[in-house]
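F.,

This is the one I mentioned.
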């Protein structure tokens, strides 16, 4: 139950109007709404708005945003900015309809109009394969347009979330400009108040209200500053534990550090008891016997090998911790390790996934933005299962 003083402060801040449509509110017609889901953003005033009854009914599933909705929203923002003209969605570049771009526009840059080609994607977990496909598609459009006109062409990838630094670097090296949630919020700051889609309006509003560094940003900085190697493994292990707790607790229980089995032979870095009754973690428990999330942190300078996968598999037992484990590795796994992980799944039905630093960063960015961080783990599982 939220207190009366908080309600009155929000009414004053919003001039007694709905945060989405501006409808006049009264004590009876106003509803509290968490801009970022409560489990990530809490009940503080920076994460709360008052909305009208109709929008309260329409926002029962926050952040379920479809790609075409984001595409139309971005086109609307651009159309309301005088530096853009001729903004089109699903634009066909050729007579054979072989080249269809998400957004096509002209942008005024240094007093010169340039062609802008934008690829949009609503996704909160990126793999290098997805990044490569984005680059290939935009490069394909670029090469085609070069044969048709002599104007300058800018390639853009846009998404309503944040992107890990390693993926940003790959896109930028390919000559692609990145319009993530932070860039879009700054670039279209004056237009955001006119967004019609309530989900996206609240998403952008949350980004506008985010000031300075928060806990997730601090953990990302610590992760980047921690050197790989044997000397600093205690620091890395402790940091991984802090990240896991920030991301997944209290949905999961707090990490239990360095727990061994009854034989005192197999010891794992962290065990997170999983008592979730709904959502992704409940599904993992029912499908993969993930009664406990078993985690190892490897601060290696090289990729992990099959030995690390076998060590994890030896700890996983249907009558013990369960059959699901995560290995956190600075540089991922080599081909031999991935082959072993596939064999472990096919023969023993034990599921292991490998997370890298960029995966941890993406999960922290998602958590900061109010997006379920476990979407990264879900993507890893999907990619693994579909590769078999």
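My design for it:
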């Amino acid at each position: 139950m939220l207190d009366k003083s908080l309600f009155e402060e929000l009414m004053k801040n919003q001039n007694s109007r709905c945060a989405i449509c501006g409808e006049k509110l009264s004590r009876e017609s106003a509803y509290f709404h968490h801009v970022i889901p409560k489990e990530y953003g809490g009940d503080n005033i920076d994460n709360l708005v008052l909305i009208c009854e109709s929008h309260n009914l329409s926002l029962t599933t926050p952040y379920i945003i479809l790609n075409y909705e984001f595409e139309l929203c971005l086109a609307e923002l651009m159309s309301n900015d005088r530096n853009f003209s001729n903004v089109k969605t699903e634009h066909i570049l050729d007579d054979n309809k072989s080249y269809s771009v998400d957004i096509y526009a002209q942008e005024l840059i240094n007093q010169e109009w340039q062609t802008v080609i934008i690829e949009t994607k609503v996704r909160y977990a990126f793999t290098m394969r997805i990044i490569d496909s984005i680059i290939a598609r935009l490069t394909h459009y670029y090469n085609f347009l070069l044969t048709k006109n002599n104007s300058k062409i800018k390639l853009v990838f846009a998404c309503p979330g944040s992107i890990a630094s390693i993926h940003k670097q790959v896109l930028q090296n390919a000559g692609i400009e990145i319009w993530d949630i932070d860039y879009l919020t700054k670039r279209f700051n004056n237009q955001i108040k006119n967004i019609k889609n309530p989900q996206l309006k609240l998403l952008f509003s949350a980004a506008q209200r985010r000031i300075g560094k928060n806990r997730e940003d601090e953990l990302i900085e610590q992760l980047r500053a921690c050197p790989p190697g044997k000397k600093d493994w205690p620091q890395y292990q402790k940091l991984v534990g802090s990240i896991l707790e920030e991301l997944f607790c209290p949905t999961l229980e707090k990490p239990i550090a360095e727990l061994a089995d009854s034989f005192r032979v197999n010891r794992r870095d962290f065990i997170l008891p999983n008592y979730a009754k709904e959502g992704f973690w409940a599904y993992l428990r029912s499908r993969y016997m993930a009664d406990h999330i078993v985690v190892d942190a490897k601060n290696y300078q090289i990729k992990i090998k099959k030995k690390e996968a076998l060590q994890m598999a030896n700890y996983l037992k249907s009558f013990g911790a369960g059959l699901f484990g995560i290995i956190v590795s600075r540089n991922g796994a080599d081909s031999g390790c991935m082959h072993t992980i596939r064999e472990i799944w096919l023969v023993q039905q034990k599921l292991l996934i490998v997370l890298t630093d960029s995966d941890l960063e993406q999960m922290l960015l998602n958590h900061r933005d109010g997006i379920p961080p476990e979407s990264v783990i879900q993507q890893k599982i999907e990619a693994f299962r579909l590769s078999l």
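Residues 128-146 form the longest helix (19 residues).

Talk soon.
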